[in-house]
Amino acid sequence: MIETELHDRVRASAMTWLVTGAAGFIGSNLVEALLRLDQCVIGLDNFSTGRTRNLDQIREGVTSERWSRFRSVNGDIRDVEVCRELCADADIVLHHAAVCSVPQSIADPSTTHACNVTGFLNMLMAARDCRVRRVVYATSCAVYGDGPEQPKVEDRGVQPLSPYATSKYVNELYADLFGRCYGTESIGLRYFNVFGRRQDPEGAYAAVVPQWVAAMIRNEPVFINGDGETSRDFCHIDNVIQANLLAATTNNRDAINQVFNIGVGESITLNELYRLIRAELCSRPASEHDLQPTYREFRVGDIRHSLADISKARKLLGYQPSRRLAQGLAEAMPWYLSNVDRSADVT
Q: Which of 164, 169, 191, 336 is catalytic?
């Protein structure tokens, strides 16, 4: 019910939305959702990790009239003039352009800072100068670090363990500062392990769900870092879309310039995740996976347990996650079966 009412609210509000990271996993799903709701969308991406095939799939999946409302821009948030040019035409910014990998940030903290901190600051300045109505931005549960308190609550326990996590916390500090100094409206969404269609399974820094699904489809080894008892709160992409639309359109003044946990409020160990993915995949025709997982050392910068307290998002945004892990995997699996290259080498 919440999503039906939310979609009606968005359809009634004809706006122009700037989505950064528009060719990426989350960004492309936001672009598609907005086009299906008859909105005008500007998509900004430098295509360093974003994929043109994601935009191609949107074009194939929506009507030509809706696709005509989309403008794709090949540009970089590290260029403040690009940010200003696009914000001049936007009512709402959904900011998702970033270096999103903990290991990558440890290997290259300089690029992570330039993209995630300087790029975000550029976007805030552009939104301020162009009087954008609101900036909704992606932050991360990684800001909590590895503290013992579970579930994670927004107003305590922040202790970043990687350049990536630090960059996301700095984003939150800058957003709060711009709200107090300049009146710039923003809402930060601390995502907890998002998964779903269009999440790239390839590369050294691929997220666990698509990486494991791809390995199982190819009947290749699945690697688990540590003993497999590490736990996560996995959040389906449709829950993230809901959170973005709620944050962008809420009239609750108590929600403005706040950060919110966006998860499901349920955690599962990596061992349990492996069994769930395997069972889901093996239930499909001509799909099977006979190998047992291979355990290796814990990865530097990873946290042991992560579980979201989503009561603040429920109360102030009206957030109601509609997809649990099992249902989300079932819905995502056809995309992986259709898009994973069975002959590709996993590096």
A: 164
